[in-house]
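2024-03-11 09:14:02 INFO worker-7 job=invfold-0412 stage=load source=structure_tokens
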């Protein structure tokens, strides 16, 4: 059992830590740690605020709470019921320790862009990506067991501090899976394509798939994007191919997830990666 799974189970089993004062019609399940995603359940018709901000509640009373990489130790959920009653719950968020990953051999231009053209391109592409993650759709495609979009060796993990060509840069917000260029990428859950870009400065071929309620998956460094914006996707559909585009040293898939601006850890939503030996046998290696 990996350390993160042990951590999550420990948190869920500690009596009173998460549930003190909670009402039967306000419950939570998920990973209560930095990078975690939690699903809340309350009465239909209730209004929910998380840390003072209103969040979408489905007709069945479901809502999502996401904790970013450096989330605070507590998150306050406030609920206003249709009959005028109110409830609140403080969610305890466990702190995580993150790795340091050093990557050398990257093109200098991709590590420290300096030209006006490159900087303007980066700014425009960042705006496009932000807009694609703003959709607040009532769909609940996230109510499934997520699957790995690609199976292979994990070469990078969520939250790690990146040292690129010896220079400290932003942390990594996804999970990297090393696979050859052309390997099919499958949808980890159903959704709607909100962005399909053939070549972005940092992320190369990039695809964003919205799963409802502001939860989205991003797939980076693709060699081919096989779907179009607005297309409805089923879980398991082939949506792209692994590549080595953008800022990379080799072919891999970088899978990221957001709940709006909160960057959550995709690895917490899927089962453990199958052993490499098993995968080699399945493909006849």
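2024-03-11 09:14:09 INFO worker-7 stage=emit residues=285
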């Amino acid at each position: 059992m990996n350390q993160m799974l042990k951590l999550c189970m420990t948190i869920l089993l500690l009596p009173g830590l998460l549930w003190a004062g909670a009402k039967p019609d306000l419950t939570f399940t998920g990973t209560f740690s930095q990078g975690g995603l939690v699903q809340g359940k309350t009465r239909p018709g209730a209004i929910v605020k998380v840390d003072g901000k209103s969040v979408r509640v489905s007709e069945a009373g479901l809502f999502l709470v996401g904790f970013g990489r450096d989330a605070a130790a507590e998150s306050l959920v406030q609920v206003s019921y249709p009959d005028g009653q109110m409830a609140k719950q403080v969610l305890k968020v466990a702190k995580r320790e993150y790795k340091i990953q050093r990557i050398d051999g990257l093109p200098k231009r991709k590590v420290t862009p300096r030209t006006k053209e490159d900087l303007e391109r980066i700014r425009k592409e960042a705006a496009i990506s932000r807009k694609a993650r703003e959709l607040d759709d009532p769909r609940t495609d996230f109510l499934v067991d997520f699957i790995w979009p690609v199976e292979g060796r994990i070469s990078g993990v969520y939250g790690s501090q990146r040292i690129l060509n010896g220079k400290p840069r932003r942390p990594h917000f996804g999970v990297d899976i090393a696979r050859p260029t052309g390997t099919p990428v499958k949808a980890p859950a159903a959704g709607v394509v909100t962005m399909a870009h053939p070549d972005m400065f940092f992320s190369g071929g990039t695809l964003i798939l919205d799963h409802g309620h502001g939860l989205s998956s991003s797939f980076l460094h693709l060699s081919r994007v096989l779907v179009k914006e607005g297309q409805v996707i089923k879980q398991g559909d082939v949506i792209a191919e692994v590549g080595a585009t953008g800022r990379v040293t080799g072919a891999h898939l970088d899978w990221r997830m957001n709940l709006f601006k909160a960057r959550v850890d995709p690895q917490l939503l899927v089962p453990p990666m199958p052993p490499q030996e098993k995968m080699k046998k399945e493909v006849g290696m």
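2024-03-11 09:14:09 INFO worker-7 stage=report msg="DSSP finds four helices and 20 strands in the chain."
2024-03-11 09:14:10 INFO worker-7 job finished
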